[in-house]
Design goal:
Layout: E1 6-9, E2 13-19, H1 22-28, E3 42-45, E4 48-54, E5 57-63, H2 67-74, E6 84-87, E7 92-98, H3 102-109, E8 124-129, E9 132-139, E10 142-148, H4 152-162
Antiparallel strand pairs: 1-7, 2-5, 2-6, 3-4, 4-5, 7-10, 8-9, 9-10
């Protein structure tokens, strides 16, 4: 079956893993998007996205060209002992699946319920995607899906086969 969906392997993003109490991170990381109101939610500010991905854990994603600005703003080396900020930009490969059949393509490799009533525009979650741990979030007209970089070529192959 063919699907009306477009699959793009996205360029590397600037990614920062933030861990610790939200109050402490909010004081230290003042320029980030607002902290999401709950787990598995995300917020945006300009080109940056802040994802609440676990207890006391967030992922900041932005265009790679902004990485140096974020490094200077977040100043991980000087962060207080109760928080951790680590640049992890080179660890993830992102794919964007968009189009009328994006949900159907995602359902081939992912068991997460992605119906808008359950997985809203501000949703983000870890799940499995073709057997690999993956971060899934909504984007305009579809989904972004990130896997550990070493699985990028394998996931691209699986997506090509699924939509062939």
């Amino acid at each position: 079956m063919t699907y009306d969906a477009k699959i793009d392997r996205l360029p590397i993003f600037a990614l920062f893993d933030l861990k610790g109490p939200q109050e402490a991170l909010s004081k230290w990381a003042k320029d980030t998007p607002a902290f999401p109101k709950g787990p598995n939610k995300l917020t945006h500010k300009a080109s940056a996205t802040l994802c609440h991905i676990g207890p006391r854990r967030w992922l900041l994603r932005d265009d790679l060209e902004n990485e140096a600005t974020w490094s200077a703003s977040l100043n991980p080396e000087e962060a207080p002992a109760d928080i951790s900020i680590v640049r992890v930009s080179d660890t993830q490969t992102f794919f964007r699946i968009t189009g009328p059949d994006a949900s159907e393509v995602m359902s081939i490799g992912c068991t997460l319920d992605l119906h808008p009533a359950v997985f809203a525009d501000d949703a983000v979650s870890y799940t499995e995607f073709f057997g690999c741990k993956a971060l899934v979030l909504r984007c305009e007209h579809g989904f972004d899906c990130a896997v550990e970089q070493s699985f990028g070529n394998m996931i691209k192959d699986f997506l090509n086969r699924a939509t062939a």
